[in-house]
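Bench notes, afternoon.
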Amino acid sequence: MEVEQTAIPEVLLIKPKLFGDERGFFQETFQAERYAEYGIGPLLQDNLSKSSRGVLRGLHYQLPDPQGKLVYVIEGEVLDIAVDIRLGSPSFGQWVGARLSGDNHHQLWVPEGFAHGFCVLSDYAIFAYKCSAYYKPEAEISLRWDDPTFAIDWPIAEPSLSIRDAAALNFDDIPKNKLPHYIAPA
């Protein structure tokens, strides 16, 4: 696999090896020892969603018990976004995006302490992700997808949102004790 740092070094773009021929292909989507070499893991929970064109999910994070997420698309295409909301981080408030698709097989590692979201660019997308902590609905926090603090360049003007995401708070309205803190690498 090929691993590239993004503009925010902790967010990694992963390009797994694909072995294919006229019959189809094989791809290893995760191998604990190999991913651990890049600081990914342990991963405790797998999730899968299917969404239609124009659906935007996010921006979500969990506190306490923040989740790192290894995300990828099985079918379709999304623009996946990671926003650094860690207080004290050198890249605080910055975001990176990657187009993930069933055709390119790329993965994005979104570390703990980042808000995460994606929008569907194809007719539909089947989106998979592995998490470093168990989902706790009472700990999930949603930030507005169009918060001017981050100025994310979404390729969609009027997304389809869940009720919760439509009611999400602006970043400036989140109490500081509900934000993750940056921990410098040793």
